[in-house]
Structure formats: C-alpha cells, structure tokens
Design brief:
Elements: E1 2-5, E2 8-11, H1 18-24, E3 32-36, E4 39-41, E5 56-61
Length: about 70
C-alpha cells in the first residue's frame, strides 16, 4: 500500500484502518493526532476509518518540554 505520510510517499504493509496505521507507527494512546485527506480523525473513529492507496495523512505527536 502507498500512502502520502507527512508529505512523503511511503510504502506500507496493507493497513485497513487508521487504527492499523497508529499501531504500525507505534503512536501513543494520547498526545497524537491523525489527519486523513484534510480531515482530523477522531480517536474514537480510528477503528472504522478505512485507508486507501494514495491517501494523504498528517500525523502529529505532541512533545513536552521544559
């Protein structure tokens, strides 16, 4: 599967949903956000939001500091 991830085309394993992507990327359960084709995906919808070849995703991880 080919996805545009944070502006770069990436070859990924077959990922059916945003939940699969989050697991593949090892995203933490909090402090991250996913945008799919310009729309923010709610965490509650990760398991039902399907991915297709050439989808555009932006993945953001919050970083704390002091």
């Amino acid at each position: 599967m080919r996805l545009i991830l944070n502006g770069r085309e990436r070859e990924t394993p077959e990922l059916a949903t945003v939940a699969d992507l989050a697991q593949w990327l090892m995203l933490p359960g909090f402090g991250s956000a996913v945008e799919l084709n310009g729309e923010v995906v709610r965490k509650a919808s990760y398991g039902t939001t399907e991915l297709r070849d050439h989808d555009r995703l932006e993945v953001v991880r919050l970083v704390g500091g002091g």
